[in-house]
Design a protein that fits this description.
Number of strands: 8
Radius of gyration: 15 Å
Helix content: 25-40%
Structural class: alpha+beta
Number of helices: 5
Distance between the termini: 43 Å
Shape: globular
């Protein structure tokens, strides 16, 4: 069976929220009492206010990514002509199969097809494997746009080269 990337369906959203929180916890990116876990688990809100894509194999959700259009509450740092990627998560049991890259490429393609001048994302310095993937598929580091939120330093990547 092959992996398919598609928009999340209402029946997927509970699994998407649980998977996203599980992936962040499995990588020790958050403490079990971190308030951000509530946002990670709330895939229904993300689907209402942004686009949630899932990678599925049969009826099993392997991963997800959120694509925020300009003006979406999930577009934290995007310029008015950019789309922003958020909350890329792959089930730890499905890692190493290219699921994250499939999701990332599909989300970038979608944002650019909808008229974005660029698609951007923020990542934590500890997400080294993700950063290698971003570089491998041609995303550019934009240090001038790095930022901090609630004590976390965020590194910015973009489909557009830095000025």
């Amino acid at each position: 069976m092959s992996v398919v990337v598609r928009p999340a369906l209402p029946d997927d959203l509970g699994r998407v929220g649980a998977l996203t929180a599980h992936a962040y916890l499995a990588d020790d990116l958050l403490a079990h009492d971190d308030d951000y876990l509530h946002e990670l688990r709330d895939a229904a809100r993300r689907a209402d206010e942004a686009t949630v894509l899932v990678a599925v194999e049969g009826d099993h959700v392997l991963g997800s990514i959120t694509l925020a259009a300009p003006g979406s509450p999930f577009a934290e740092i995007a310029a008015p002509d950019e789309w922003e990627l958020r909350m890329l998560a792959v089930d730890p049991a499905a890692r190493g199969r290219g699921v994250g890259e499939l999701l990332l490429r599909a989300a970038i393609e979608s944002g650019l097809a909808d008229g974005a001048s660029a698609v951007i994302l923020s990542t934590l310095p500890a997400m080294a494997a993700a950063q290698r993937m971003y570089a491998r598929i041609g995303l550019h580091r934009v240090p001038s746009r790095d930022w901090s939120v609630e004590g976390y330093s965020m590194l910015v990547y973009s489909t557009a080269p830095p000025p």
